[in-house]
Amino acid sequence: MTQIDIDKDWSCSVASLVIDALVTAKIVAKTDFDRAVEIAAEEIVVRLSLGDRPSLDNVRYKSR
User: Is 44 inside any structural domain?
Assistant: First the structure.
């Protein structure tokens, strides 16, 4: 499995959790769940591809 495959799989898992919470909160319709997961997962995988990922090397996590 490549890093891209791992990123895509992880993105889908995280997106599913987020969209499930939005469905529960009645912000996203249950009928839109699959499409919303696709959109969210794509955005997450793009961010990961750009190097925006949790790690100590990411400037977001540097001490200020």
Answer: yes
Q: What is the pTM of this model?
A: 0.82
Return the pLDDT at 64: 63
Nearest to 40 by CA among 59, 17, 63, 58: 17
**Per-block mean pLDDT, blocks of 10 residues, the chain (64 long):** 92 97 98 98 94 76 68
Neighbouring C-beta atoms of residue 3, cutoff 10 Å: 9
**Residue 11: inside a domain, yes or no?**
yes
CA distance 61 to 36: 29
Task: Using alpha carbons, select from 4, 2, 1 the residue that is nearest to residue 50.
Answer: 4
- d(CA 53, CA 49) in angstroms, rounded, equals 9
Q: What is the tally of structural domains in the chain? A: 1
